[in-house]
Design goal:
This protein is mainly alpha-helical. It has one domain. 86% of the residues lie in helices and 0% in strands. It is built from three helices and no strands. It is rod-shaped and about 50 Å long. The mean pLDDT is 93. Keywords: Membrane, Transmembrane, Transmembrane helix.
Length: 72
Amino acid sequence: MTAVADLAVWSGLGVVLVLIGHWGRRNAAGLTPPTLPADERHRREGVLRRGGAACQMVGLLFVGAGIVATVL
């Protein structure tokens, strides 16, 4: 692949992952089932928020990989 294609693919995947992570963190309360007990619902919201943060971090790594692939 060319350097520009590497940058586009890696950065594109990274941006998509960051956006998915942002959406997941923002909508964690709405994604948990309302029928759960309050303590379990709160725990699952935290799990979803942490998962969204992890998704954002991986997305940033992908963007970084795209930049490194372009430079090298």
